[in-house]
Amino acid sequence: MAMTLPDAFDALSQFQQMLDSSRSSGWLDAGPSAGGAYPPLNVFRKGDDVIIITEVPGVRKEDLQVQIKGNTVRIAGTKSVPYGEYASVHRRERLAGKFDRAITLPLEVDPEKAHAECRDGILALFLPRAEHDKPKSIVIS
Amino acid sequence: MATSQALEVQEKKELVSKEEKTFPSRYFIPNTDIFETEDALILAMEIPGVTRENVEINLENDTLRVEARIDYGNYQGLEPLYTEYNVGHFARAFTLSRSLDQQRISAELADGVLRLVLKKAQDAMPRRITIN
Known about the structure:
The complex is a heterodimer of chains A (about 140) and B (about 130). By secondary structure, chain A is mainly beta. Chain A contains 1 helix and 9 strands; from the N terminus they run αβββββββββ. In chain A, strands 1-7-5-4 form a 4-stranded antiparallel sheet, with no helix packed on it. With about 130 residues, chain B is mostly beta strands. Chain B has no helices and 10 strands. In chain B, strand 9 (about 100-110) and strand 10 (about 115-120) form a beta hairpin. Chain B is elongated.
């Protein structure tokens, strides 16, 4: 029997397994997507709302553009990797370039209440589900 | 550098360490650029999601070790619906040459990129010889 430790490391490990198991789940396939595959996205649910998190290290806030129309979200921008002058490069693993990605969510969001945060190379989009799209409870009489 | 090309996705590489960890979570290897200017060696590492206080830089026996930890608390209460990458702490080690001044290493963190500046030792600097 597995031991259950309420330890932060263990919690992260479990979360990593959860992320692995929802890898390329069919959730997003319902709608058409456009543009490139960058940036890679993770889509989460928190209550009724959807949170999209993506890693964009080295991209400045002013170089990012996020648009919402209907239930389509577009993330576009430019990532630059500056070296400065007179530098000789020994190892180059970071990539630079332009990106433009659009995804269509299989539910309706309220674009007025949506907001985005970009901190430490992580872009997070908070997309509240549209009020009229939320499931209604039916009272059983 | 051409910045007009479309950016490709770089799959995150998981760290396979020679040393074993005693806790179960997985680590990733941060993408790193290494370049040299006249007086310094510069390392730029991508560690998205890590704040300044969670970066640990150690120098021991010519080995520079960088460990950057994400704040897992930000993900608590989130239920994954669709994922394309995994998250975890970052770790990477570099062996330094002795021609670097190990006392003068500076670091800064901006937009998820850690930039380490390792100054070259005085005797390793290129010298200009004037001809009389």
